[in-house]
Write a structure and sequence with these properties.
The protein is an alpha/beta fold. Helices cover 40% and strands 13% of the residues. The structure holds guanosine-5'-diphosphate-beta-L-fucopyranose.
């Protein structure tokens, strides 16, 4: 059975012989959709460092992926042989719960347009990126890939999660109907250079860096974080994620999505202490329990990724320190 005809069910991995045929041509046109975002820019850096010569990236003002005709026209002209679908509307717990229509509708339109246009051009390899919030709120921990669609979603991000689940099914359906070796990967909570440090729309790690930095700068003696601080999350540096994506593109071919994470988690309180130490904030920390906690724990089982030969390398304390440095250096130009 060829890798492309493995069908929707099963967790078939890649044999060594198949993997050797997956190596990407460094001179072939590769389209990174969303190359200016946290995820896409890290993938762009990783591919550039690896000698890829023909990367294609367009800003949203150059190509609006919600515009179906424009997306089809672009694919017909650029004819990429590989697509990395990292373009998405993303946000933290508050953004997701306040604007569910935007997260559902924009993400569905972007991914359907990109995948339909890629299919029309018979793009030979496509990597669709989702998120660990696709899994049920109360999934057993650590979360294995097969727990998908076994329970109710976390309500603060169910609209976003449904869009991403549709993307996984889209990839699986293309494999089944057209036999193309497209794949999906589900990274855990990401952070790193180029993140969104907005006060209300960001994820927790950049949100805390900004809050603690401002408290230190203004001499505030107290900060207030969201929720109870007891939820547990797994944090992966975006450069590790990019490395994992390239590794999967060159070593994995199967219908099932692959989790990308570190395999360890911390409580939000523990994370807050690490960020305070990295920033040098020593005031009081309060918790606003009127803000949502979200899912109580989200730790991915990464045995499938490890079986494919990849492990995270950047320890959380090092990643936080370098992200704080990046934030301080780019303070004037970042998305706040
Ligand atoms: O990072 P975060 O928004 O992502 O929140 P989720 C994680 C936890 O940190 C929650 C708490 O329990 C928040 O209540 N928290 C504390 C804060 N202070 C802050 C703060 O200043 N900002 C933020 N944002 N949180 C998102 C999903 O869920 O994660 C998305 O909504 C996506 O769909 C993404 O999957 C990875 O892990 O709760």
């Amino acid at each position: 059975m060829t890798p492309a005809s493995t069908g929707l069910s099963g967790t078939t991995g890649t044999t060594a012989a198949q993997a050797s045929t997956l190596r990407l041509d460094r001179d072939a046109p590769i389209y990174v959709a969303g190359h200016r975002g946290l995820v896409g820019s890290a993938i762009w850096r990783r591919l550039t460092n690896d000698g890829f010569q023909n990367l294609i990236g367009l800003s949203s003002s150059e190509l609006d992926l919600k515009d179906r005709q424009a997306t089809f026209d672009f694919f017909a002209e650029a004819k990429p042989t590989t697509v990395i679908l990292a373009a998405a509307k993303v946000g933290g717990i508050l953004g997701n719960s306040q604007y569910p229509v935007d997260f559902l509708s924009e993400n569905l339109r972007i991914q359907v347009n990109v995948m339909d246009a890629a299919l029309e051009q018979r793009v030979s390899r496509l990597l669709f990126l989702g998120s660990s919030c696709i899994y049920p709120k109360m999934a057993p921990q650590p979360i294995r890939e097969e727990y998908l669609l076994t329970g109710h979603l976390e309500p603060t991000n169910d609209a976003y999660a449904i869009a991403k689940i549709a993307g996984i099914l889209h990839v699986q359906s293309v494999r089944r109907q057209y036999g193309l070796p497209w794949i999906s990967a589900m990274p855990t909570n990401l952070y790193g250079p180029g993140d969104n440090f907005s006060a209300t729309g960001s994820h927790v790690l950049p949100g805390l860096i900004r809050r603690y930095h401002e408290a230190k700068r203004t001499g505030a003696t107290e900060v207030t974080n969201w929720g109870s601080g007891s939820p547990r999350r797994e944090f992966l540096h975006v450069d590790d994620m990019a490395d994992a994506c390239l590794h999967l593109l060159e070593n994995y071919d199967g219908p099932e999505q692959v989790n990308i994470g570190t395999g360890t988690d911390v409580s939000i309180k523990e994370l807050a202490t690490m960020v305070a130490n990295a920033v040098g904030y020593s005031g009081q920390v309060k918790w606003d329990t009127t803000k949502p906690d979200g899912t109580p724990r989200k730790l991915l089982d990464v045995s499938k990724l490890e079986a494919a030969g990849w492990k995270a390398r950047i320890p959380l304390h090092e990643g936080i320190a370098s992200t704080v440095d990046w934030f301080l250096q780019h303070h004037s130009e970042i998305r706040t």
